[in-house]
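[User] Could I get a sequence and structure tokens?

[Assistant]
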Amino acid sequence: MRGTAWFSLLIALCCTACGTTAPFGAGPAKPENSTGVTQIPVGSVAPQTPVRTVPSAVVPLSTVETPRPGGLALFADPAAVSTEWLRAWCTLDWREPMNGNLDRAARYQTPSAAKADRREGDTEDTYRSMREQQLSSGCDEVTATPSPEAPQSADVAYLVLSARRVNSAAGVAFEIEQIRSVRRVLRQTDGRWLVDTRVEAG
């Protein structure tokens, strides 16, 4: 039975590879397997087409959030705070509370951005599916670079954020995907930079 479920999961994942990259302004579709169970949610960062590899060759990344510096120096740099936001948002673990990644990421965001991301987060149904399948995600290669297409100012920055995410089920990695988002980052009245809402391409 377990082998059949795993085979169904792999078939569902292969089918989703036929889709196209979601635009920045649109929430990504949440693929379903043959039994109608929603797979791992991707929330507010639209993934590019996943790069498939042989499961045995993929090493799961840590899903434990490493303590990061959180002093004023971090919030003085829009790229630094954006990188920490993406690192916190990107890491998921089926053993943590629902939308635990959004709770971690919220400290780096404006309230309106945190609220918008929460609307695209897990529901009771997707969270239950995540726990049943023991789905987790770890991320590395996190970057934040100025967008060449958007104007920058003393109080507003537009950054292209990206990371490599490895998804796993029950401790076995099954997918690598590159996630990417363009975010506006705003300087607050107290001098801190905070990640704001997603910016649509074009």
User: Anything to note?
Assistant: The chain is about 30% helix and 25% strand. Strands lie at 92-93, 135-146, 156-169, 172-187, 193-198. The first strand starts at residue 92 and ends at 93.
